[in-house]
Amino acid sequence: MDTASHILLGVTLGGLATIDPSLNESDVAAAVMIGTILASNAPDFDAILRLKGMNSYNRHHRGITHSLPGLIIWPVIITILLVPMFSIHNHWPTMLLWSFLGVSLHVFLDMLNSYGVQCLRPLKKRWVHLDILAIFEPFLFVIHGAGQLLWFGFGYASGPMFLWVYIITFIYIGIRFIQHQALVKKVSQHIGAKGICHVIPTLHWLKWSFVMETDECFYTGTIRSGRVKVEDIYSKEESNEIIRATMGMDGVRAFLSFAQRVHVCSTVRGNGEGYEVHWSDVRFWHNSHLAFGVDIQFDRHMNVVEQTLGWRKKKWDPPYM
Question: 33 to each of 11, 78, 101, 177, how far by Cα in Å?
């Protein structure tokens, strides 16, 4: 989920926390509010890895900071910082509980989108992504924003109101889950081949995209109002000397540690001036364009001229990840 939504849900979780009688004390309520906001964003503090470059960031983002140990470590750190700051030593269990809920909510919401998380580390390094919610969900942003407005602007009781907001939130997630499962089945039936199917949400309730990998190729397409349409088909290229030469590169290793539906192709540059290799994760496609991957350029003697890892799109262009 995007940073603005994580901040917003941190505030509304702090509002929900007021159902706890111990928050009748103003110092405790203030500490818990700050704690839930910090906790709702703490797993994304791995953004500091951008300072080491995109290879390091893409290899580790949503990894150990979103892991099983992270669910404990982040709340403990937040509790150790805030309890003495607000002198609420008798209420450290309350601080720890709501910080834990904030971190857990963050990881849970990130698990529901297509980028996913390595939330099972250290038991398993596999990426978990349920493809149920978009990175930004307008419906959730509106209902949580409206609740915050009613609380701060009109003095509504925060505890009971945000209890209903979160009930609606989880009902919405359940509906999207059922919708997603039905669409996966529909795409598989439409293509009529065995394979792995990803149905990926967009900002529009009735529009989804999909990627299906079979033994021979990748199918990409859209689902609009329940109608499935195949847009592009990407063949699986056999490995060759040019592609094999990229396998040990840092950018490719970082990409392969994250990517799941991998397409790779090689081409000759100009009139034999050199070669290009493009690694792409087909999940992140839009309008016949594979938007995320690694691009490597060689000269004619197989020396690396340029290597880039990341998005091949502007930040405001879809897909929104």
Answer: 7, 12, 12, 30
Q: What is the DSSP string of 105-155?
A: HHHHHHHTSSS-B-TTTTT----B----S-SS-HHHHHHHHHHHHHHHHH-
What crossing angle do the helices spanning 68-86 and 92-111 adopt, rounded to 10°? 140
What pLDDT is stored for residue 321 in this prediction? 65
Whole-prediction pTM: 0.90
- Please state whether the peptide bond connecting residue 319 to the residue before it is cis, i.e. omega within 30 degrees of 0: yes
CB crowding 34-72: b at 16 or more within 10 Å, else e: bbbbbbbbbbbebeebeeeebbebbbbbbbebbbbebbe
Other C-beta atoms closer than 10 Å to the C-beta of 181 total 12
Other beta carbons within 10 angstroms of residue 149's beta carbon come to 11
Q: What is the pLDDT of residue 211?
A: 96
Tokens 């917003």 correspond to 8
